Amino acid sequence: MAADGAGMASELTRLTAAEIAAAVAAGDVSAVEVAQAHLDRIVAVEPDVRAFLHVAGIGALAAAEDVDRKRAAGEPLGPLAGVPLALKDVMTTTDMPTTCGSKILEGWRPPYDATVTRRLRDAGVVILGKTNMDEFAMGSSTENSAYGPSHNPWDLTRIPGGSSGGSSAAVAAYEAPLGVGTDTGGSIRQPAAVCGIVGMKPTYGGSSRYGLVAFASSLDTPGPLARTVLDAALLHEVMSGHDPRDSTSVDAPIPPVVAAARHAGVSGLRVGVVTEFSGGGSQSGVRARFTEAVELLESLGAKVVEVSCPHFSYALPAYYLIAPSECSSNLARFDAMRYGLRAGDDGTRSADEVMSLTREAGFGAEVKRRIMLGTYALSSGYYDAYYGKAQQVRTLITRDFDAAFEQVDVLVSPTTPTTAFPIGERADDPMAMYLADLFTIPSDLAGNAAISVPCGLAPEDGLPVGLQIMAPALADDRCYRVAAAVEAALQERWGGPLLAQARELGEQAGDGR
């Protein structure tokens, strides 16, 4: 690297994923230089941001060297070859621990890669490490991690969202241009919104769940986090597609998400404002930025109408019966017999006693709460009254979406009711915490596509606000089309990307703030 290596390294971390991939492919910079720049950035800011649970420096540099070797040999490179990425610690990796943010899996090395992990490696993406998360993806703040919370780079005293808070914080803090998260009730879109980045929940089944440690099997969806809409689309395309090893995988072509992100435009598009999500109950600054975003879409040629989805009001209670029920079933595999933590095994206790002691020591409070809720909802005499009724509500919510999409092409709402709240503020109030996902849960229950894109800063606290765009199943490209139009128009208004406004903050975080 040149004499001004530190300055060049800093500039490399500011590039978008598309810019990095183009520079590596052209030979303007090596993948190793790019990886090292981001590893250096991680060293600088991690004491404050705490986005990573495991940094794979040696592995990342080896992967980058392989990209450089292929380029030198004239071999074709993928659209994201040489681009660093932060991987949520819920996707299995053979060369790194997979803990799911839980003590019960501390140090566990899986025997296989998740399909998403394998596709990233095959595409030449450089995985920097595994990121922090709410334990088993259960939470909205990353405070439920057994390894401590991550911090929002915009304000280090506040949460970065959850459960994919580590990945969102890493992208927002310029530790990686790309991140992978999973969305079960909003766990990609909510952290993206509060960290001022882009987060996409693909259509359920559009990205493989093979190797994703399950929380709620009918809801879990891997998806991209990025600082631009185009970067998110590029990652979406690389990580998606049919997987015969996942029985819920959709055997259909990947929607043309990259083309939609490159050729944005909403003229003539019918945009529906969800009546139930556009009124009171949200922070005033969130409502103000959302209203401006809707007016912006109208000024760009979209036809904006109000659409009522009456059963969306029941999405939150339905979700907190369905998701815990599935978690109760899925987490039964952590029994201390085959892998992970084993507590109290002194040779005198029965297998049932060891199992009980292990789960007591290994699971955190929120995981225990949801297991108990789910077990109760599935129990004899209560199944029909609770779980069965919740599934009926789920059907009604899906029908609301179907009826809405007969009238409009996309639906819009705020992504979250508030901006990032202070760490610890809702730790002892589960209902207040659950309300962070109020606007994102319906799309998970229905399985359709939804994206969060930055739409400004709330005036009362100067923190990011997200605009949520929802589209029908397998119409993921509509999300990118609208998001890219909003992004382009607002960048013109701001004179640059929203996240650039946090540059000084991120640098100060590296100085120990």
Instruction: Kindly report the average pLDDT value.
Output: 94
Helix content: 40-55%
Spatial strand arrangement across the major sheet: 1-3-2-4-6-5-10-11-9-7-8
Structural class: alpha/beta
Which stretches are poorly predicted, pLDDT < 50 over at least 5 residues? Answer: 502-513
Which class in CATH terms? Alpha Beta
First-to-last CA distance: 29 Å
- From the 3D structure, determine the CATH topology: Amidase signature (AS) enzymes
Structural key phrases:
Amidase signature (AS) enzymes, globular, disordered C terminus, 513 residues, 18 helices, eleven-stranded mixed β-sheet, 11 strands, alpha/beta, single chain
Describe this structure in words.
This protein is 42% helix and 12% strand. By secondary structure, the chain is an alpha/beta fold. The chain has a single domain, classed as Amidase signature (AS) enzymes. The protein has an eleven-stranded mixed beta sheet, with helices on both faces. The longest helix is centred in the C-terminal third of the chain and has 24 residues, at 384-407. It is globular. Mean pLDDT is 94; it is low at 502-513.
